[in-house]
Amino acid sequence: MTIKPLENVKSFAVSRPPLVVFMVCVSALAIAFMSLAYYIKMNQITDPDITQDWNTFLLNFGKMDFCVSDNDTVKHYDDDVTPTTTGPSSKPEKEILESEPQKNVSVTIMLTLDPMKNFVGFPHNVTHLQATISGEELGLHGSEGLEEVNVTFTLPTAWSTQDCAKKGQCREAKFKTCVTFVASPAVFPTTRKPETCHADSFNNNTANSVYYTTWIQALDPLTPEDHWCPSGVFVKAYHALNPELSVMMSAGERSLVNLHLLHTSYFLFVMVITVFCYAVIRGRPSKPRAANNMDTKVPAEA
């Protein structure tokens, strides 16, 4: 009996289309695993076990929207300490005193101030912006999500709104600010920190004896954006992704993942080759036995 490989493969494909489609999908999956193994071997990969690093922390902070209002502005002098808790706190005073020591972290971040159409202006120059947010708004969960985080923006120069009344409108302003986060140590990531800044020396107006801290409010998801900040200043922070702050997998971990993916792809290829060899050797379907019964002679009627 001669074996006709090409005809056997054709007959196998015609008689078993679901199996052929399945083997094509298995082959594509094996190629994908092998390609992924090569990519992991040749490139740096973020460690999936680290769910919160400083990139994630600052990117979540950059997703928040704030509104500046002149309803709560505090006047300070050079002898005062830069405030960190001028806004209202939801925690009782006793609970705050008994809680663990607060930690402050200051980093540089870009800040955009976009006045609304109905904004008139402030009667003074603004040098600091302050807000209180929750850990949940920063992407934290559990007990860390319930913690309060005090945020203070120190502007490099005093933001003046005196030109608004003269020109009829205020233009968008962008600053490279020093933002200070004050919260429980559990709120902050334990990974590599970004470059820090010093809020007390960040402002160039050191000659002025008076500076103003203005309270800002985070966007309330239940309030429509059109009615949220109609006559204030829209505030938005921006953080550019810094690869140096991401935690990468070690060479040993990448080698182990690469090995597992290669073993899986080899197994899938062996499965495909086995089915292909079966199709080459015995691809023709066997003839049904019912056909042989039709060839038997029918006995003649008496």
Topology record:
Blueprint: H1 5-15, H2 17-42, H3 54-62, E1 65-77, H4 93-98, E2 103-115, E3 126-134, E4 148-159, H5 162-167, E5 173-183, E6 210-218, H6 225-228, E7 233-238, H7 251-281, H8 290-294
Helix pairs in contact: 1-7, 2-7
Brief account:
The chain has helices at 5-15, 17-42, 54-62, 93-98, 162-167, 225-228, 251-281, 290-294, and strands at residues 65-77, 103-115, 126-134, 148-159, 173-183, 210-218, 233-238.
What would you say this structure looks like, in words?
By secondary structure, the protein is α+β, with helices and mostly antiparallel strands. It has 8 helices and 7 strands; from the N terminus they run αααβαβββαββαβαα. α1 (5-15) crosses α7 and α2 (17-42) runs antiparallel to α7 (251-281).
Point out poorly predicted stretches: 73-98
Structural class: alpha+beta
Q: Rg from C-alpha positions?
A: 34 Å
Query: What letter string, H or E per element, gives the SSE order?
Result: HHHEHEEEHEEHEHH
Largest sheet: 7 strands, mixed, barrel
Q: Can you tell me the overall shape? A: elongated
| Ends distance | 44 Å
**How many H/I helices?**
8
Mean pLDDT: 76
- Beta fraction of the residues? 15-25%
Order of strands, widest sheet: 1-6-3-4-5-2-7
Name its key features.
7-stranded mixed barrel, 32% helix, 302 residues, alpha+beta
